[in-house]
Amino acid sequence: MSIGTVPQRWKDLETDMVLSPADISSREEERKRRIEKTNIAVLNYHATGVKRENYTSAQALRDSLNSDDEDSSLKFKLYVVEDLSRDVIEILGQKFDIEPDFFRAHIADFAWYNVRDRWRNPPMLDIVSRCQNWTQLRYVTARYFDVNEEYRHKNRQESFKAATKEADNFNIMRRVDDDLSNKSVWDKDGAIVGLTRSRATFWIQPQHLQQGMAVGILLLDPTVTQGVPLWRGRRPLWPVSAAYDQPGAPKPPAQDDFFEDFLFWAQQKDLCPNGTANDTSQALVPIQVLLHLICSEWITMSDYIKTRLNQLDWEIIKPEFFRLSKVGVANMLEKLHMWRRLVPLYREMVSETTRHIDQFSSRIETLVATLESISTEGSSRTNSPTTVNCMPNQAQRTLISHYDADFKRIKEQLEEYQTRIDQLTAVVTAVISIDNSQRSLQDNRNIGRLTWLATFFIPLSLIAGILSMQSNVNEISGYTFKVYFATSLPLSIAIAATTITLSMSRSENKKKLKGFTRVVGSFGTR
């Protein structure tokens, strides 16, 4: 709260140290920017439609919350917040009496904590989490970072490095990680797929605090501008036939910004699987859109993992791809170890998300009952009196359960991938061992040839050295050469026979020694 961002960046914004006046001024401006950062869109769900309001300053948001000019037809108001800042936390938290854990759980995303991390949030018991008014959905986004031709030879990771630097400017802790799987023969040289662990945190105002309408707050992660969504994004939420039947239907965004993409679909009607929705269910469209987008991200991530594992399988099957070099073998193990670490983490994230959804489903049902009660009371004031039905609609009670099958399928696929990764690791390790054994065998054969060559020339060199010990080489006669060969050749044969005898087993010694003796005997006879 003092610096407006995560505690790890305190060292980059601290001013209580020996710094130049320019550095102190720069850090103070950066802290001020982070503290005052505001990007909020308010979706007002009326009986006649949805109206959007944007706030880019904390003072404008405060003035809007303090005003009392609320429309009686307003049934549900949703504050969609991109990133977080100290001013936004204080304004929203004070106005709606929100527990601090709602904001704290969204700030950082760590797979694990060091023993010296003082900012670790203590875990919450299940019985406590069931009583909270907020839930959190975790997911992973994948972005493709291509390389421009002008930077191909200068810096192959220009776009990816720009994305990591851009993520450092977020107040919340998010990272764009290289999955180390971009060294396949099918990948473009220099292209990278970056993975980011993200969170969406949703809060609903308790029923006893609602004054004529329901209020919700949704915290979303910012999206880096570098790169593009993997495989160019998700399917639209409209039915295919309905999208073409609507004259003048708005064009969906390019899916390059999760914040704007959510706001667009949260203002639309006739989304799958609701079909033709009534006024009450329109207020629940944001919940459906959030589940739809997050589930789509998980399906995309699952398909990407399947792609990478199939590429590894193909590289093992095709030796010309697998045995390019020792570096390629090391890269394959590196990629497998990366997925061996990530897939169990993703399974944990999916399990945590589904558990939170199940726990929060009762809050959604309560919201449905409240909205239907408000809608019924409103119609009773304008029309003839009717009986108030506070029981949630069965179709809306199953709003969340529409995505149970998809989340279950994603979890099963991740479990299958984890088993497959373990099997691939064993196969790759075995293939590497076989390849190393073959190389060692080839090296041993080469060493054996060199040993035989050295063994043959050792006696020749010895005799030559003994016979060459004289001052005048011209005085060497033909008799000297006869003595040289008569002495060195039998000695070479004797040394070779001794080497073969020592290198063979006892059972082979007798057979090969007899054959060698016959060869030596025939040579001596001649």
Topology at a glance:
Blueprint: H1 10-13, H2 21-36, E1 40-46, E2 50-55, H3 58-66, E3 74-82, H4 86-96, H5 100-107, H6 126-129, E4 134-145, H7 158-168, E5 177-178, E6 192-204, E7 214-220, E8 228-229, H8 240-245, H9 258-266, H10 279-282, H11 285-317, H12 319-322, H13 326-382, H14 394-397, H15 404-467, H16 478-503, H17 506-525
Parallel strand pairs: 3-7
Antiparallel strand pairs: 1-2, 1-3, 4-6, 4-8, 5-6, 6-7
Helix pairs in contact: 3-4, 9-11, 11-13, 11-15, 13-15, 15-16, 16-17
What does this structure look like?
The chain has 526 residues and is α+β, with helices and mostly antiparallel strands. It has three domains: 1-33, no CATH class; 37-113 and 124-432, no CATH class; 470-525, no CATH class. 55% of the residues lie in helices and 11% in strands. The chain contains 17 helices and eight strands. Strands 1, 2, 3, 4, 5, 6, 7 and 8 form an eight-stranded mixed β-sheet that branches. A hairpin with a 3-residue loop joins strand 1 and strand 2. Helix 3 runs parallel beside helix 4, helix 11 (285-317) packs parallel to helix 15 and helix 15 (404-467) packs antiparallel against helix 16. The longest helix has 64 residues, at 404-467. 27% of the residues are buried. Residues 149-154 and 379-397 have low confidence and may be disordered.
